[in-house]
Amino acid sequence: xxxxxxxxxxxxxxxxxxxxxxxxxxxxxxxxxxxxxxxxxxxxxxxxxxxxxxxxxxxxxxxxxxxxxxxxxxxxxxxxxxxxxxxxxxxxxxxxxxxxxxxxxxxxxxxxxxxxxxxxxxxxxxxxxxxxxxxxxxxxxxxxxxxxxxxxxxxxxx
Length: 158
Hints:
- The chain has 158 residues and is mostly beta strands.
- It has helices at 2-18, 30-33; strands spanning 35-45, 51-55, 67-70, 75-83, 90-103, 106-110, 117-124, 128-134, 149-156.
- The chain has an eight-stranded antiparallel β-barrel.
- The longest helix is centred in the first third of the chain and has 17 residues, at 2-18.
- The relative contact order is 0.18.
């Protein structure tokens, strides 16, 4: 009987070690991130993951949403556009420089406004990036009162 108990204990140990929770974590291909990305949509979610609203607005149908460039030296350049006063053409609204780092399944962004903003990478392929982040308490006033996190989908430009 003791041999059977030893076998069962050994089997359980091997099974437990072979089924660790990190088996499902896949490495995020950092080289896929390098390039320019255009924000396609921002989905604002509540604590139950219900959609509060979706922003797919392209400024006046002319200007793109935010464009973020992830450079190979781990710096970022974010470019925002808006319509000019005649509302017939797109003009530069703001540019920002920052940094990026991928660790595990997370993208960390830093710039003049925040340090190490943690975004969960839901999907990173050659031409699609979907990230999600919680709304920090100090920024909650910028959002609808129900919004707790934001999911952003980007498409690669180049």
